[in-house]
Amino acid sequence: MHFSTIAKAIEAELLPKIKGSRFIGFIAPVTSRQDALSVVSQRRAMYPQANHHCFAYSLAVANESYCSDDGEPHSTAGRPIQQVLSQHRVQDACLVVSRIFGGTKLGTGGLVRAYAGAAELVMSEATIVETQLSTSRTVQVPIRYAEMVKKSIVNFDGRVTSLDFGVDSAALTVQIPLVHSTAFHTYVNELTGGRAAFSSS
To answer: Given its phi and psi angles, is residue 20 left (phi above 0), alpha (psi -120 to 50 degrees) or beta?
Structure first.
């Protein structure tokens, strides 16, 4: 399964200020809820003067999405940010918009436009890339099969991230697209005569 994500983190500020308020957008690649919340924490630390750090994230493997208004009126911040992620079909990303209050209230419509605008701005400046769902597995095989398994991984669009040799066996940690995972398991089992052991990394 292919999906879109962003290549690297980027920040962009909506200009000019809206009735004195600053809206600073930031998007970063993430692969878990913990990653996303860590991004939000980093933004809080970077802009401690901001009154709100509203955000949304979307995760491909977990098929999970979430948004937060962080104290703004219900659905005026988190949901517009989430809609920008959805419209661009971007996953494995967390988008945060930090607001530094300028002294004048914007009203619900004004807030929606401001948060959506800041989210759209940072999204427009981000580099969107196509990727595919992958999984990390450790496979333990008799030592004489290690090099054959290592060389074969490219046939499944995967890569070996580590290789450890023991006395009689070798453990290879591989990153492989989910769509090829079953075929890779079958190949290794047939190659080793069923003497391979798989585990999640």
So the answer is: left
Pick the CATH number of 133-200 from 3.20.20.140, 3.30.70.240, 3.20.20.70, 3.40.50.2300: 3.30.70.240
Instruction: Give the DSSP H/E element, type plus range, for residue 27.
Output: strand 21-29
Helix (H, G, I), strand (E, B) or coil at 106: coil
Neighbours of 169 (CB within 10 A): 17
Query: Confidence class of residue 1 from pLDDT cuts 50, 70 and 90?
Result: low
Secondary structure element (H or E) that encloses residue 95, with its range: strand 93-100
Would you say the pTM of this structure is higher than 0.85? no
Homologous superfamily assigned to 2-131: Impact, N-terminal domain (3.30.230.30)
Half-sphere exposure at residue 92, Cβ-oriented, CA atoms within 13 angstroms: 18
